[in-house]
Amino acid sequence: MTAERGMVLAPPAGIGVVAPRSPARGGARPGTWRAWRARGRGAGALAPVCADVAAAAAVAGPHGAAGLIVLAALLALHTAGGLYQRGAVPLTGALDELPRLLGHTAVAWCVAAALAPGARPGVAALVGLVAAQTVLAGAARGLVHRAGRRAALRRPRPALVVGTGPAGERVAAVLAQHPEYGMRPVGLVGPVPRRLPEIAPLPVVTSHRDVTRAIVRYAVRDAVFAGAPDEALVRLFWSRGCAVWLVAADPADAAGATGHLWGFGCRRLDPPKRRGRRGARRGKRALDVVLACGALAAAAPVLALCALAVRVADGPGVIFRQERVGEDGRPFTMYKFRTLRPADEREAATRWSVAGDRAMSRVGRLLRRSGLDELPQLWNVLRGDMSLVGPRPERPHFVERFTALYPGYADRHRMPVGLTGLAQVSGLRGDTSIEDRTRFDNLYIETWSLWQDVRIMLRTTAVCLRLGGS
To answer: What percentage of the chain's residues is helix, strand, coil (to nearest 5)?
Structure first.
Protein backbone atom coordinates (compact mmCIF):
# COMPACT_ATOMS: atom_id res chain seq x y z
CA MET A 1 0.00 0.00 0.00
CA THR A 2 1.30 3.46 -0.89
CA ALA A 3 -0.01 6.86 0.14
CA GLU A 4 0.54 10.20 -1.55
CA ARG A 5 -1.37 13.42 -0.84
CA GLY A 6 -4.39 11.60 0.56
CA MET A 7 -4.66 9.04 -2.23
CA VAL A 8 -4.03 5.47 -1.11
CA LEU A 9 -3.38 2.91 -3.79
CA ALA A 10 -4.61 -0.60 -3.24
CA PRO A 11 -2.29 -3.31 -4.55
CA PRO A 12 -3.50 -4.88 -7.81
CA ALA A 13 -5.05 -8.21 -7.03
CA GLY A 14 -7.80 -10.35 -8.46
CA ILE A 15 -10.35 -9.08 -10.91
CA GLY A 16 -13.51 -7.07 -10.82
CA VAL A 17 -12.53 -3.41 -10.97
CA VAL A 18 -10.31 -2.16 -13.73
CA ALA A 19 -7.21 -0.18 -12.89
CA PRO A 20 -7.50 3.58 -13.38
CA ARG A 21 -6.49 5.03 -16.72
CA SER A 22 -5.79 8.51 -17.92
CA PRO A 23 -8.61 10.45 -19.57
CA ALA A 24 -6.89 10.39 -22.94
CA ARG A 25 -6.82 6.61 -22.96
CA GLY A 26 -10.06 5.92 -21.20
CA GLY A 27 -12.28 8.47 -22.88
CA ALA A 28 -12.80 9.93 -26.29
CA ARG A 29 -9.88 11.57 -28.01
CA PRO A 30 -9.96 15.33 -27.54
CA GLY A 31 -10.73 17.46 -30.53
CA THR A 32 -12.62 14.77 -32.45
CA TRP A 33 -16.29 14.56 -33.35
CA ARG A 34 -16.59 11.57 -31.04
CA ALA A 35 -15.22 13.56 -28.12
CA TRP A 36 -17.54 16.45 -28.93
CA ARG A 37 -20.51 14.12 -28.95
CA ALA A 38 -19.37 12.46 -25.71
CA ARG A 39 -19.59 15.84 -23.96
CA GLY A 40 -23.27 15.96 -24.80
CA ARG A 41 -23.04 18.67 -27.49
CA GLY A 42 -23.40 16.46 -30.52
CA ALA A 43 -25.99 14.24 -32.10
CA GLY A 44 -26.26 11.93 -29.07
CA ALA A 45 -27.69 14.70 -26.91
CA LEU A 46 -30.27 15.63 -29.57
CA ALA A 47 -31.34 12.08 -30.39
CA PRO A 48 -34.37 11.96 -28.01
CA VAL A 49 -35.52 15.35 -29.31
CA CYS A 50 -35.20 14.14 -32.90
CA ALA A 51 -37.16 10.99 -32.04
CA ASP A 52 -40.02 13.02 -30.55
CA VAL A 53 -40.01 15.50 -33.43
CA ALA A 54 -40.14 12.66 -35.98
CA ALA A 55 -43.06 10.98 -34.19
CA ALA A 56 -44.93 14.29 -33.87
CA ALA A 57 -44.31 15.16 -37.53
CA ALA A 58 -45.62 11.79 -38.68
CA VAL A 59 -48.88 12.06 -36.73
CA ALA A 60 -49.48 15.77 -36.16
CA GLY A 61 -47.82 17.16 -39.28
CA PRO A 62 -50.89 16.89 -41.54
CA HIS A 63 -52.92 18.97 -39.05
CA GLY A 64 -51.15 22.26 -39.82
CA ALA A 65 -51.22 24.81 -36.99
CA ALA A 66 -52.53 22.20 -34.54
CA GLY A 67 -49.51 20.05 -35.30
CA LEU A 68 -47.12 22.91 -34.53
CA ILE A 69 -48.89 23.54 -31.23
CA VAL A 70 -48.66 19.85 -30.38
CA LEU A 71 -44.95 19.82 -31.11
CA ALA A 72 -44.22 22.98 -29.10
CA ALA A 73 -46.29 21.81 -26.11
CA LEU A 74 -44.76 18.35 -26.23
CA LEU A 75 -41.18 19.61 -26.22
CA ALA A 76 -41.96 21.94 -23.32
CA LEU A 77 -43.64 19.17 -21.30
CA HIS A 78 -40.83 16.68 -21.98
CA THR A 79 -38.20 19.22 -20.97
CA ALA A 80 -40.02 20.08 -17.74
CA GLY A 81 -40.63 16.38 -17.06
CA GLY A 82 -36.96 15.41 -17.37
CA LEU A 83 -37.29 13.34 -20.52
CA TYR A 84 -34.35 15.18 -22.09
CA GLN A 85 -32.12 14.98 -19.03
CA ARG A 86 -28.65 13.77 -19.99
CA GLY A 87 -26.83 11.20 -17.95
CA ALA A 88 -24.26 8.47 -18.40
CA VAL A 89 -26.38 5.63 -17.09
CA PRO A 90 -29.24 4.18 -19.15
CA LEU A 91 -31.39 3.80 -16.05
CA THR A 92 -34.66 3.93 -17.96
CA GLY A 93 -35.94 2.51 -21.21
CA ALA A 94 -38.78 3.36 -23.54
CA LEU A 95 -41.28 1.32 -21.51
CA ASP A 96 -40.34 3.20 -18.35
CA GLU A 97 -41.01 6.47 -20.14
CA LEU A 98 -44.25 5.34 -21.76
CA PRO A 99 -46.63 6.66 -19.04
CA ARG A 100 -45.10 10.14 -19.22
CA LEU A 101 -45.06 10.05 -23.01
CA LEU A 102 -48.75 9.15 -23.01
CA GLY A 103 -49.70 11.83 -20.50
CA HIS A 104 -47.69 14.58 -22.19
CA THR A 105 -49.01 13.66 -25.63
CA ALA A 106 -52.61 13.73 -24.40
CA VAL A 107 -52.12 17.15 -22.80
CA ALA A 108 -50.44 18.50 -25.95
CA TRP A 109 -53.30 17.40 -28.18
CA CYS A 110 -55.89 18.83 -25.78
CA VAL A 111 -54.05 22.17 -25.84
CA ALA A 112 -53.92 22.07 -29.65
CA ALA A 113 -57.64 21.27 -29.87
CA ALA A 114 -58.40 24.22 -27.60
CA LEU A 115 -56.12 26.77 -29.29
CA ALA A 116 -55.94 25.87 -32.98
CA PRO A 117 -58.78 27.33 -35.06
CA GLY A 118 -60.77 24.65 -36.82
CA ALA A 119 -58.98 21.77 -35.03
CA ARG A 120 -61.81 20.00 -33.22
CA PRO A 121 -61.28 16.22 -33.65
CA GLY A 122 -63.83 13.96 -32.09
CA VAL A 123 -63.09 11.98 -28.95
CA ALA A 124 -62.37 8.79 -30.87
CA ALA A 125 -60.10 10.59 -33.35
CA LEU A 126 -58.28 12.37 -30.51
CA VAL A 127 -57.69 9.09 -28.68
CA GLY A 128 -56.38 7.53 -31.90
CA LEU A 129 -53.99 10.43 -32.54
CA VAL A 130 -52.66 10.32 -28.98
CA ALA A 131 -52.21 6.55 -29.09
CA ALA A 132 -50.49 6.57 -32.50
CA GLN A 133 -48.07 9.33 -31.57
CA THR A 134 -47.26 7.70 -28.22
CA VAL A 135 -46.50 4.36 -29.87
CA LEU A 136 -44.31 5.97 -32.54
CA ALA A 137 -42.45 8.10 -29.97
CA GLY A 138 -41.92 5.08 -27.73
CA ALA A 139 -40.54 3.01 -30.62
CA ALA A 140 -38.23 5.82 -31.73
CA ARG A 141 -36.99 6.36 -28.18
CA GLY A 142 -36.41 2.63 -27.85
CA LEU A 143 -33.98 2.82 -30.77
CA VAL A 144 -32.30 5.84 -29.16
CA HIS A 145 -31.86 4.02 -25.83
CA ARG A 146 -30.47 0.97 -27.61
CA ALA A 147 -27.91 3.10 -29.43
CA GLY A 148 -27.09 4.85 -26.15
CA ARG A 149 -26.44 1.57 -24.36
CA ARG A 150 -24.13 0.44 -27.16
CA ALA A 151 -22.22 3.73 -27.01
CA ALA A 152 -21.94 3.45 -23.22
CA LEU A 153 -20.60 -0.06 -23.54
CA ARG A 154 -17.90 1.08 -25.97
CA ARG A 155 -16.86 4.19 -24.05
CA PRO A 156 -17.91 4.24 -20.38
CA ARG A 157 -17.33 7.52 -18.58
CA PRO A 158 -14.86 7.87 -15.66
CA ALA A 159 -16.64 7.76 -12.30
CA LEU A 160 -15.78 8.01 -8.60
CA VAL A 161 -17.53 5.68 -6.17
CA VAL A 162 -18.17 7.33 -2.79
CA GLY A 163 -17.80 4.72 -0.07
CA THR A 164 -14.84 2.59 0.95
CA GLY A 165 -16.76 -0.05 2.87
CA PRO A 166 -18.29 -3.28 1.56
CA ALA A 167 -21.11 -1.39 -0.15
CA GLY A 168 -18.70 0.83 -2.08
CA GLU A 169 -16.62 -2.19 -3.08
CA ARG A 170 -19.69 -4.01 -4.40
CA VAL A 171 -20.89 -1.01 -6.40
CA ALA A 172 -17.42 -0.43 -7.88
CA ALA A 173 -17.18 -4.09 -8.83
CA VAL A 174 -20.60 -3.98 -10.50
CA LEU A 175 -19.70 -0.91 -12.54
CA ALA A 176 -16.43 -2.47 -13.69
CA GLN A 177 -18.06 -5.78 -14.61
CA HIS A 178 -21.01 -4.13 -16.39
CA PRO A 179 -19.77 -1.26 -18.58
CA GLU A 180 -23.14 -1.16 -20.32
CA TYR A 181 -24.23 1.19 -17.52
CA GLY A 182 -21.87 3.76 -19.00
CA MET A 183 -19.50 4.28 -16.06
CA ARG A 184 -15.94 3.13 -15.39
CA PRO A 185 -14.76 3.42 -11.76
CA VAL A 186 -11.43 5.24 -11.38
CA GLY A 187 -11.34 5.66 -7.61
CA LEU A 188 -13.06 5.27 -4.24
CA VAL A 189 -13.85 8.25 -2.01
CA GLY A 190 -13.86 8.01 1.77
CA PRO A 191 -11.75 7.15 4.77
CA VAL A 192 -9.00 4.57 4.28
CA PRO A 193 -10.45 1.20 5.33
CA ARG A 194 -8.65 -0.99 7.82
CA ARG A 195 -8.37 -3.59 5.11
CA LEU A 196 -7.98 -2.46 1.53
CA PRO A 197 -10.31 -4.18 -0.94
CA GLU A 198 -8.76 -7.26 -2.46
CA ILE A 199 -10.66 -7.01 -5.73
CA ALA A 200 -10.39 -3.26 -6.25
CA PRO A 201 -6.99 -1.91 -7.37
CA LEU A 202 -8.35 1.63 -7.19
CA PRO A 203 -6.98 4.76 -5.49
CA VAL A 204 -8.75 5.74 -2.28
CA VAL A 205 -9.33 9.50 -2.15
CA THR A 206 -9.68 10.79 1.40
CA SER A 207 -10.10 14.59 1.23
CA HIS A 208 -12.25 17.06 -0.69
CA ARG A 209 -9.15 18.65 -2.15
CA ASP A 210 -8.00 15.31 -3.52
CA VAL A 211 -11.49 14.65 -4.88
CA THR A 212 -11.13 17.84 -6.92
CA ARG A 213 -7.71 16.74 -8.13
CA ALA A 214 -9.08 13.33 -9.12
CA ILE A 215 -11.97 14.91 -11.03
CA VAL A 216 -9.53 16.98 -13.08
CA ARG A 217 -6.94 14.22 -13.50
CA TYR A 218 -9.33 11.52 -14.69
CA ALA A 219 -11.95 13.80 -16.32
CA VAL A 220 -14.56 12.33 -13.96
CA ARG A 221 -18.13 12.83 -15.15
CA ASP A 222 -20.12 10.83 -12.57
CA ALA A 223 -20.13 10.31 -8.80
CA VAL A 224 -21.86 7.25 -7.36
CA PHE A 225 -22.76 7.32 -3.66
CA ALA A 226 -22.98 3.84 -2.16
CA GLY A 227 -24.57 5.13 1.03
CA ALA A 228 -26.06 8.22 2.64
CA PRO A 229 -24.78 11.21 0.62
CA ASP A 230 -22.58 13.82 2.26
CA GLU A 231 -24.11 17.22 1.45
CA ALA A 232 -20.78 19.04 1.10
CA LEU A 233 -19.40 16.34 -1.16
CA VAL A 234 -22.54 16.33 -3.30
CA ARG A 235 -22.25 20.09 -3.77
CA LEU A 236 -18.58 19.66 -4.70
CA PHE A 237 -19.46 17.17 -7.44
CA TRP A 238 -22.28 19.42 -8.69
CA SER A 239 -19.92 22.40 -8.83
CA ARG A 240 -17.54 20.34 -10.99
CA GLY A 241 -20.32 19.45 -13.45
CA CYS A 242 -20.60 15.78 -12.40
CA ALA A 243 -23.81 13.78 -12.44
CA VAL A 244 -24.51 12.46 -8.93
CA TRP A 245 -26.14 9.06 -8.41
CA LEU A 246 -27.40 7.49 -5.18
CA VAL A 247 -27.21 3.70 -5.14
CA ALA A 248 -29.05 1.64 -2.54
CA ALA A 249 -26.61 -1.15 -1.71
CA ASP A 250 -29.19 -2.49 0.78
CA PRO A 251 -32.47 -3.60 -0.87
CA ALA A 252 -34.36 -2.11 2.07
CA ASP A 253 -33.20 1.35 0.98
CA ALA A 254 -34.30 1.01 -2.65
CA ALA A 255 -37.58 2.92 -2.20
CA GLY A 256 -37.77 5.85 -4.59
CA ALA A 257 -35.29 4.37 -7.06
CA THR A 258 -35.90 5.33 -10.68
CA GLY A 259 -33.72 2.56 -12.08
CA HIS A 260 -31.09 0.07 -11.07
CA LEU A 261 -27.41 -0.82 -11.42
CA TRP A 262 -27.40 -4.58 -11.77
CA GLY A 263 -30.09 -4.96 -9.11
CA PHE A 264 -29.02 -2.05 -6.89
CA GLY A 265 -31.74 0.59 -6.76
CA CYS A 266 -30.45 3.86 -8.18
CA ARG A 267 -31.66 7.42 -8.66
CA ARG A 268 -30.08 10.66 -9.79
CA LEU A 269 -29.59 13.59 -7.43
CA ASP A 270 -30.00 16.88 -9.27
CA PRO A 271 -28.93 20.31 -7.99
CA PRO A 272 -31.59 22.92 -7.22
CA LYS A 273 -32.63 24.73 -10.37
CA ARG A 274 -31.34 28.26 -10.74
CA ARG A 275 -33.26 29.56 -13.74
CA GLY A 276 -31.65 32.99 -13.84
CA ARG A 277 -28.12 31.55 -13.86
CA ARG A 278 -28.99 28.96 -16.51
CA GLY A 279 -30.53 31.61 -18.74
CA ALA A 280 -27.47 33.81 -18.34
CA ARG A 281 -25.18 30.93 -19.31
CA ARG A 282 -27.26 30.37 -22.43
CA GLY A 283 -26.89 34.06 -23.18
CA LYS A 284 -23.12 33.73 -22.80
CA ARG A 285 -23.08 30.85 -25.28
CA ALA A 286 -25.26 32.75 -27.74
CA LEU A 287 -22.94 35.76 -27.48
CA ASP A 288 -19.96 33.47 -28.12
CA VAL A 289 -21.49 31.96 -31.24
CA VAL A 290 -22.61 35.28 -32.74
CA LEU A 291 -19.33 37.10 -32.07
CA ALA A 292 -17.12 34.15 -33.05
CA CYS A 293 -18.93 33.78 -36.39
CA GLY A 294 -18.64 37.49 -37.05
CA ALA A 295 -15.00 37.60 -35.98
CA LEU A 296 -14.06 34.64 -38.16
CA ALA A 297 -15.70 36.25 -41.17
CA ALA A 298 -14.19 39.68 -40.51
CA ALA A 299 -10.74 38.31 -39.68
CA ALA A 300 -10.56 35.92 -42.64
CA PRO A 301 -8.03 38.12 -44.55
CA VAL A 302 -5.92 38.52 -41.39
CA LEU A 303 -6.01 34.78 -40.78
CA ALA A 304 -4.89 34.15 -44.35
CA LEU A 305 -2.03 36.65 -44.07
CA CYS A 306 -0.88 35.18 -40.74
CA ALA A 307 -0.95 31.66 -42.17
CA LEU A 308 1.03 32.78 -45.21
CA ALA A 309 3.60 34.59 -43.05
CA VAL A 310 4.10 31.53 -40.82
CA ARG A 311 4.42 29.27 -43.86
CA VAL A 312 7.04 31.49 -45.50
CA ALA A 313 9.03 32.21 -42.32
CA ASP A 314 8.90 28.84 -40.57
CA GLY A 315 7.91 26.25 -43.16
CA PRO A 316 4.98 23.82 -43.19
CA GLY A 317 2.79 23.18 -40.19
CA VAL A 318 1.02 26.51 -39.86
CA ILE A 319 -1.46 25.43 -37.17
CA PHE A 320 -0.18 24.24 -33.80
CA ARG A 321 -2.48 21.76 -32.00
CA GLN A 322 -2.16 21.12 -28.29
CA GLU A 323 -4.22 19.33 -25.65
CA ARG A 324 -5.67 21.64 -22.99
CA VAL A 325 -8.03 21.16 -20.06
CA GLY A 326 -11.44 22.81 -20.35
CA GLU A 327 -14.60 23.17 -18.31
CA ASP A 328 -15.11 20.46 -15.67
CA GLY A 329 -11.64 19.08 -16.42
CA ARG A 330 -12.52 17.87 -19.91
CA PRO A 331 -9.58 17.74 -22.34
CA PHE A 332 -9.83 19.25 -25.81
CA THR A 333 -7.53 20.20 -28.68
CA MET A 334 -6.70 23.91 -28.85
CA TYR A 335 -5.52 25.59 -32.05
CA LYS A 336 -2.97 28.39 -32.48
CA PHE A 337 -0.72 29.72 -35.21
CA ARG A 338 2.66 28.08 -34.74
CA THR A 339 5.26 30.53 -33.47
CA LEU A 340 7.99 28.00 -32.56
CA ARG A 341 8.43 24.36 -33.48
CA PRO A 342 8.94 22.23 -30.32
CA ALA A 343 11.63 19.56 -30.24
CA ASP A 344 9.08 16.83 -29.50
CA GLU A 345 5.62 16.25 -28.01
CA ARG A 346 7.00 16.04 -24.48
CA GLU A 347 8.56 19.48 -24.75
CA ALA A 348 5.31 20.88 -26.12
CA ALA A 349 3.38 19.41 -23.18
CA THR A 350 5.78 20.29 -20.35
CA ARG A 351 7.76 23.40 -21.34
CA TRP A 352 6.29 26.35 -19.50
CA SER A 353 7.18 29.34 -21.72
CA VAL A 354 8.83 29.92 -25.09
CA ALA A 355 8.50 33.70 -25.10
CA GLY A 356 12.26 34.33 -24.82
CA ASP A 357 13.44 31.54 -27.10
CA ARG A 358 15.99 32.86 -29.59
CA ALA A 359 14.92 30.27 -32.15
CA MET A 360 11.62 32.10 -32.57
CA SER A 361 11.37 33.94 -35.88
CA ARG A 362 10.38 37.59 -36.21
CA VAL A 363 6.99 36.51 -37.51
CA GLY A 364 6.45 34.27 -34.50
CA ARG A 365 7.52 37.01 -32.11
CA LEU A 366 5.17 39.52 -33.76
CA LEU A 367 2.24 37.09 -33.64
CA ARG A 368 2.80 36.45 -29.95
CA ARG A 369 3.21 40.12 -29.05
CA SER A 370 0.03 41.10 -30.91
CA GLY A 371 -2.00 38.09 -29.77
CA LEU A 372 -2.74 37.18 -33.40
CA ASP A 373 -1.43 33.65 -32.78
CA GLU A 374 -4.59 33.06 -30.72
CA LEU A 375 -7.02 33.83 -33.57
CA PRO A 376 -7.54 30.15 -34.59
CA GLN A 377 -9.08 29.61 -31.16
CA LEU A 378 -12.20 31.31 -32.51
CA TRP A 379 -12.86 27.90 -34.05
CA ASN A 380 -12.62 26.36 -30.56
CA VAL A 381 -15.16 28.94 -29.38
CA LEU A 382 -17.52 28.11 -32.24
CA ARG A 383 -17.23 24.38 -31.50
CA GLY A 384 -18.03 24.91 -27.83
CA ASP A 385 -14.62 23.89 -26.47
CA MET A 386 -14.04 27.43 -25.22
CA SER A 387 -15.78 30.72 -24.58
CA LEU A 388 -14.61 34.14 -25.71
CA VAL A 389 -14.04 35.09 -22.06
CA GLY A 390 -13.02 32.81 -19.23
CA PRO A 391 -9.99 31.39 -17.42
CA ARG A 392 -7.22 30.55 -19.87
CA PRO A 393 -6.91 26.79 -20.52
CA GLU A 394 -3.73 25.03 -19.50
CA ARG A 395 -2.00 21.78 -20.44
CA PRO A 396 -2.86 18.64 -18.40
CA HIS A 397 0.71 18.41 -17.03
CA PHE A 398 0.50 21.87 -15.52
CA VAL A 399 -3.13 21.53 -14.41
CA GLU A 400 -2.21 18.54 -12.26
CA ARG A 401 0.88 20.30 -10.93
CA PHE A 402 -0.83 23.63 -10.14
CA THR A 403 -3.87 21.91 -8.62
CA ALA A 404 -1.55 20.32 -6.06
CA LEU A 405 0.35 23.55 -5.38
CA TYR A 406 -2.29 26.30 -5.41
CA PRO A 407 -5.57 26.06 -3.45
CA GLY A 408 -8.51 27.01 -5.65
CA TYR A 409 -6.72 26.33 -8.94
CA ALA A 410 -9.05 23.47 -9.86
CA ASP A 411 -12.06 25.71 -9.13
CA ARG A 412 -11.17 27.66 -12.29
CA HIS A 413 -12.72 24.84 -14.29
CA ARG A 414 -16.22 25.65 -13.04
CA MET A 415 -16.70 27.88 -16.08
CA PRO A 416 -15.82 27.44 -19.75
CA VAL A 417 -12.22 28.34 -20.47
CA GLY A 418 -11.72 31.44 -22.57
CA LEU A 419 -9.80 33.13 -25.32
CA THR A 420 -9.15 35.97 -22.88
CA GLY A 421 -9.99 36.65 -19.26
CA LEU A 422 -9.92 39.04 -16.33
CA ALA A 423 -6.42 37.87 -15.38
CA GLN A 424 -5.08 38.51 -18.88
CA VAL A 425 -6.46 42.04 -19.23
CA SER A 426 -5.10 42.77 -15.75
CA GLY A 427 -1.56 42.09 -17.00
CA LEU A 428 -1.24 38.44 -15.92
CA ARG A 429 -0.10 36.98 -19.24
CA GLY A 430 2.84 34.76 -20.05
CA ASP A 431 5.25 33.93 -17.23
CA THR A 432 3.35 35.56 -14.35
CA SER A 433 2.17 34.46 -10.90
CA ILE A 434 -0.11 31.40 -11.02
CA GLU A 435 -1.42 32.26 -7.56
CA ASP A 436 -2.48 35.71 -8.78
CA ARG A 437 -4.05 34.27 -11.93
CA THR A 438 -6.00 31.76 -9.84
CA ARG A 439 -7.34 34.55 -7.63
CA PHE A 440 -8.38 36.69 -10.61
CA ASP A 441 -10.00 33.72 -12.41
CA ASN A 442 -12.08 32.73 -9.39
CA LEU A 443 -13.07 36.37 -8.84
CA TYR A 444 -14.28 36.48 -12.44
CA ILE A 445 -16.36 33.32 -11.91
CA GLU A 446 -17.93 34.52 -8.66
CA THR A 447 -18.82 37.96 -10.08
CA TRP A 448 -19.61 36.87 -13.63
CA SER A 449 -22.11 38.72 -15.81
CA LEU A 450 -22.59 39.21 -19.54
CA TRP A 451 -21.62 42.87 -19.21
CA GLN A 452 -18.38 41.84 -17.52
CA ASP A 453 -17.62 39.65 -20.55
CA VAL A 454 -18.24 42.58 -22.89
CA ARG A 455 -15.95 44.83 -20.82
CA ILE A 456 -13.17 42.23 -20.86
CA MET A 457 -13.47 41.83 -24.63
CA LEU A 458 -13.20 45.59 -25.13
CA ARG A 459 -10.15 45.76 -22.86
CA THR A 460 -8.59 42.82 -24.73
CA THR A 461 -9.03 44.64 -28.04
CA ALA A 462 -7.24 47.66 -26.60
CA VAL A 463 -4.37 45.48 -25.34
CA CYS A 464 -3.96 43.80 -28.75
CA LEU A 465 -3.91 47.16 -30.54
CA ARG A 466 -1.06 48.21 -28.23
CA LEU A 467 0.83 44.99 -29.16
CA GLY A 468 0.54 43.84 -25.59
CA GLY A 469 0.18 40.13 -26.25
CA SER A 470 2.37 37.47 -24.66
So the answer is: 55, 15, 35
